[in-house]
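Sequence decides. Consider this:

===
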Amino acid sequence: MPAYHINIVHNWRKTRHPSGEYLLHIRVTQGRESMYLKVMEDAIPQKFSTRYWTGQTNNWIAEFHPSGFEINKLLRDEINKIWSFITKQKANHNRSVTLAEIKEAYYSKSKFDLTFNEYAVRYIRRNPKKLAYRTIQVYKTFLKHLNEFNPKTNWSDLTPALIDQFNTSLLNKNLKGAARKKYFDKFEVVYKDGCKQLQIPKNEYLFSDLTIKVEKPKRKALSEKEMEEWVMAVVPPELELYRDQFTFLLYTGLYYNDLVGLIKSECLHTADNGKMYIEGNRGKNEERFIIPILPSVMAMIQKYQQEAEDSFFPKYLSEQKFNIKLKEIEIILGWNYSLSNKVGRHSFTDYLISHGWPHAMVQKMLGWSKQETAKHYYDLHPNHILNYAESSPLLA
């Protein structure tokens, strides 16, 4: 019997696209004949940049991709399903299975007997909107709470009464309004996607009776003194890169995942006056941003120029591991802020607002797409007022 070989391939047609993003396929080879199966829609429909593709069996997607671990596990699961089918067919019929039979079996998977919980698992794995790691974690936490409430929620069970009961169960866990709203937002996204994909009639009033009061968020931002302390921090050589990367976030307002995707030759520009700036698109909402580069940040870019080549830094981690490195440096500084990469963006934003930068400029620099986002940050506190007063002839 001809031997079978199964693996994941990226851009198997060897085409070229300006985006640099291509689909993954499962290549099944029997003897000298091969076929390519598009990974099932309920698994991974999205395209992947060549930046994330490693080509290494079982670890096809790079570790620094926000969902790299989950995607590789899912791909292994898909391959194992095909191997299981081949093994069972050979055991039952004592003959080799044709590629056509494998293809038919793979594409005939039934999705209509899924519970809502099971569909939510597949949606999270599929990650159709290329969500960041932290957003994926919100989906997973929402699903954890739903499983604790009802591990087998059928689509027919989804009524306004059930939504109210689930909200009550979250209240009983002492979850605040912001957390509950966040989970119900994910609930609604998965529900709408499932109705569309499974062709289930959508109840337009499912969430209409849900009312959640949201408290104002408390965003952690470093003061100017703390920012300077961070930049000057003496750290072990193995942490120096991550200190500098967070410094880059502090003085550009970028998220770590946006920094990872930047290519210098595409986004680093020189203005007519000789000043340097970064122009690009945010990964979350595709909004354009323009950020001036300070001389100190430019010196940091040049520091890593030889190692990093066309990236800003020579090495990146997953967002989760990067945050762990920040906490290690925080311990050295004697801080207790539970730093994450988001604090860099909040600190940059807070600095601009406290020094009176116009709203329109701040919005463009940070790539905000909604006015509501800006309002969260423009909740002035004493530091904002006192710093701005220093530049006022009347109050200085």
In short: The chain has a mean pLDDT of 85. The two ends are 88 Å apart (CA to CA).
